[in-house]
Amino acid sequence: MPTLTTSAADAVAQIPDGATILIGGFGKAGQPVELIEALLDHGASDLTVVNNNAGNGEHGLAALIGAGRVRKIVCSFPRQSDSQLFDERFRAGLIELELVPQGNLAERIRAAGAGIGGFFTPTGYGTLLAEGKETRMIDGRGYVLESPIRAEYALIAAHTADPLGNLTYRKTARNFGPIMATAATHTIVQVSNVVPVGQIDPEVVVTPGIFVDVIVDLHQTGLGNGVPTDAYTSGKVSA
Amino acid sequence: MSERLTRDRLAEIIAADIPSGSFVNLGIGQPTLVSNYFSSDQKVTLHTENGMLGMGPVAVGDEIDEDLINAGKIPITELPGASYFHHGDSFGIMRGGHLDICVLGAFQVSATGDLANWHTGDPGAIPAVGGAMDLATGAKEIFVMMNLFTKTGESKLVPACTYPLTGIGCVTRVYTDVAIFEILSAGVRVRETYGMEFTELQSRVDVPLLPPEN
């Protein structure tokens, strides 16, 4: 059973220096900005962050990088017109970059969550990004061995949660959330909305609650923080 | 003799070459223009790498929704019948060979269809690959859309790529402002030229070219 809180600060308080953190989002869509900003306030440093990008603009992941908290970033598309905070630190040699093709990044995360020890992928075969990696010819085609990306923490954003941690997402803000939720020891999700148990149609649950450890209720619906657990299932507390 | 193609005219030609009912991914930048020229009875379904099939036109005004963007992170719309899925599934769609055609930009394309489009190799450059390698490897056909010549006049269709590769032997057609090329096992065939005769084209491209079939 996950913890339900309205405090992003409480949710990230246990994250130590040196942690590896999967952070959801594709650009700004699906980026758990409130959790990242709480992490910035919390002060953890020397972090390894896995995200598709290396921050956009001045907020969220960009601010975390700009503040020098990130030692290494694992991503597919770091440089963009608004990635100036990353660009500066990279050019100054202050942040390490592991560049991964986007599908390999996704599959490495998925593999970690699914207990796969590694997989052969055609993506990147014969390129700079496969240098030094084991390769194999399978049915006449070249493949590269890629390893799972596991993390102690995942910070993701979803649209709706119930107190059991079942999640739905909204449009393309889904992106990395569902796979990252599976690949971390502690998955912390911020949501716009919490509804009582039973209010999410089981057919539309995207992330089952088994993958979720902490829910941060940004909308402060009152379902968490001191409300007895049995109230979650009674249907008496409405969103 | 016809004139060199504008980007819009080139996009229109590419759109017309895409078979009805295709599942298509358009790379960021120039290839995005192709979406302006599909006819409604063509029934092309657009895939965007960040987890959607059935992508509609760019969003304007009240349609803008920060949760609904394309691979270039531009707000877009959804068409009836659209679907959303996570990144693992989105790249499984590519890697699993379910996309019919992907249109990508390029720095260079080789005579055997190698693609270079993610990194100039310059020491000062910050490389960014995104989904380019996955698309190059996964889509059944890769169409490249680019200007044939660099600003200093060198052909970007080359005997072998000098820039770091994105994918090997993946490009099937190259659409440029000056000519359309088909990469075949027999060699590179020119389908049509624009604003330049075949002989002049051959003199400026260091790849043996097969002339257009009449």
From TrEMBL, chain A:
GO molecular function: CoA-transferase activity
Gene3D superfamilies, alphabetized: Glutaconate Coenzyme A-transferase (3.40.1080.10)
Protein name per its UniProtKB record: 3-oxoadipate CoA-transferase alpha subunit
UniProt feature coiled coil, ranges: none
Keywords on record: Transferase
InterPro entries the UniProt entry points to: 3-oxoacid_CoA-transf_A (IPR012792), CoA_trans_fam_I (IPR004165), CoA_transf_BS (IPR004163), NagB/RpiA_transferase-like (IPR037171)
Entry annotated with the keyword Transferase: yes
Family, per entry: Belongs to the 3-oxoacid CoA-transferase subunit A family.
TrEMBL record, chain B:
InterPro entries: 3-oxoacid_CoA-transf_B, CoA_trans_fam_I, NagB/RpiA_transferase-like
Protein name: 3-oxoadipate CoA-transferase beta subunit
Lyase among keywords: no
Keyword terms, alphabetized: Transferase
TM segment ranges: none
Pfam family, one: CoA_trans
NCBIfam families according to UniProt: pcaJ_scoB_fam
PANTHER family from the UniProt entry: KETOACID-COENZYME A TRANSFERASE, SUCCINYL-COA:3-KETOACID COENZYME A TRANSFERASE SUBUNIT B-RELATED
GO molecular function: CoA-transferase activity
Keyword Magnesium annotated: no
Family membership noted in the UniProt record: Belongs to the 3-oxoacid CoA-transferase subunit B family.
Domain of life: Bacteria
